[in-house]
Write a structure and sequence with these properties.
By secondary structure, the protein is of the alpha+beta class. It is 30% helix and 28% strand. Bound molecules: adenosine-5'-diphosphate and magnesium ion. The site of adenosine-5'-diphosphate (ADP) has 16 residues, from strand 7, strand 8, strand 9 and strand 17.
Length: 429
């Protein structure tokens, strides 16, 4: 079959790589893709948010399956548009994507169905005074979230009333997030290890892929600003069989049921962002698509046929035996531009990629482009240097990854040195 992957980041490079190995594949297109995906299929210059453009392309190139990488087009309803035109889509409908697009929708649904998550209150823009009053009478820290999607910048962990107040003002007074900030969720601060787990589902049946741990902050020791993700590893030892079963029983099964009850059947990848608290796993958030950079470490740990999994899911009856965990481990370290996540420069020549790629080492492209025949930086997160080994040995996976990254260079390159360390500390305890 002919397949189109929508997106241009490291996540889409990883999806394209797994799909490119499938026997079911005829032609692979990536819209718009990046220099990494260009080696696996044909990049097509269509923006991820250009729904009519994507539809036209799919119709004129006999695309049988579209795999949507980023959340924005899903939240805006690309799946519905493509399906109406007879094209199969891996990704939820607009109605189902509200699980990510409106945090208040997800929280109310979890409350209604008793799904474990932080306690919360919702406030609207015209409740400004009421929200401040609420904030004067609670314990800190507290978490303040813009309701809509805000490019990872809509969440503030406030240590005291003053910073909570300024977070609310960002949303309600300064309108920093536009419509996304006209409603906010104020929620209880949870503690524990964070983990990300992907449920691949047709809305009723599902499989869980190996659990991963992301590293959102820019600096070692989880210091500094939030980013799109500076590295990940899988599987994470923080999620054992007992916790996996709790995730299935208490989170995934009731969430899918809730969505069916609301006539918003959820099909695609349900990303569960979890806090592993002393009371068990609780939902931090849902995303309506694969995570980045978790996908870069999770997909290479699957044997079988990923396209078979995604295609049967998109058709409405998931083949749960299409893929299985191969017993290995994987670590991904993101090489970022100087200044990221704030302002950064582009166009720096990247060297060393070809010297490090081998059977156990992948270099995913995230923010790169080609200029005068050379690979140059073109984004904040530039590359995902990723080791994939056959044994479940995170120490070795980490070592191979850092050996490789030391041979890659571009002006101003920064990366975290402590990816995997939480897991290694646990194992060494
Ligand atoms: N209730 C909470 N308690 C503790 N930390 C939280 C809580 N909610 C969010 N966080 C932290 O903030 C990060 C971002 O929040 P999240 O809900 O995932 O929003 P988004 O990914 O849309 O920015 C989380 O990864 C987590 O580290
Ligand atoms: Mg998140």
């Amino acid at each position: 079959m002919n397949v189109a992957v929508i997106g241009s980041g490291g996540r889409e490079h990883a999806i394209a790589l797994s799909v490119s190995k499938s026997k079911l594949l005829n032609k692979l297109f990536i819209l718009p893709g990046n220099p990494g995906t260009g080696k696996l299929g044909t990049n097509v210059h269509i923006d991820v948010n250009d729904s009519p453009g994507i539809l036209n392309f799919c119709l004129s190139n006999s695309i049988e399956l579209v795999i949507v990488g980023p959340e924005q087009p899903l939240i805006e309803g690309i799946s519905d548009l493509l399906r109406k035109n007879g094209i199969k889509v891996f990704g939820p409908s607009k109605e189902a994507a509200r699980l990510e697009g409106e945090k208040s929708f997800a929280k109310d649904l979890m409350k209604e169905y008793g799904i474990p998550t932080a306690a919360y209150e919702i406030f609207y823009k015209n409740d400004f005074e009421k929200s401040l009053n609420y904030l004067r009478n609670i314990e800190y820290p507290v978490v303040i979230k813009a309701d809509g999607i805000a490019a990872g910048k809509g969440v503030v962990i406030a240590e005291n009333y003053q910073s909570a107040k300024s977070a609310v003002e960002e949303c309600f007074v300064k309108n920093s997030f536009g419509i996304a900030g006209e409603k906010i969720v104020i929620e209880e601060y949870m503690t524990g290890q964070e983990a990300s787990i992907f449920a691949i589902t047709d809305g009723s049946d599902f499989i869980l892929l190996p659990a991963a741990q992301d590293h959102k902050r820019i600096f070692d020791g989880d210091k500094g600003k939030n980013t799109g993700g500076m590295g990940a590893y899988a599987p994470t030892p923080f999620v054992d069989d007992e916790i996996l079963s709790q995730i299935s029983q208490k989170i995934v099964i009731p969430t899918l049921k809730a969505m069916r009850d609301k006539s918003a059947n959820y099909s695609g990848c349900l990303y569960c962002g979890l806090m592993l608290t002393h009371e068990g796993p609780k939902v931090v958030e849902f995303n309506c698509r694969f995570g980045d950079p978790e996908t870069q470490v999770v997909l290479p740990l699957l044997d079988g046929d990923i396209l078979g999994l995604l295609y049967t899911t998109a058709k409405g009856k998931i083949n749960k035996n299409a893929v299985w965990y191969n017993g290995g481990s994987s670590a991904c370290v993101v090489a970022a531009s100087a200044g990221y996540p704030d302002k950064y420069e582009k166009g720096k020549v990247i060297s060393g990629i070809d010297n490090v790629e081998n059977d156990e080492l992948l270099v995913y492209h995230a923010g790169t482009s080609i200029k005068d025949g050379e690979i140059v930086t073109n984004g904040g997160r530039v590359l995902g240097i990723t080791s994939v080994i056959k044994e479940n040995n995170l120490k070795l996976a980490k070592q191979k990854c850092y050996d490789a990254i030391s041979k890659i260079y571009f002006d101003g390159m920064q990366y975290r040195k402590d990816i995997c360390d939480k897991a290694l500390n646990l194992i060494n305890k």
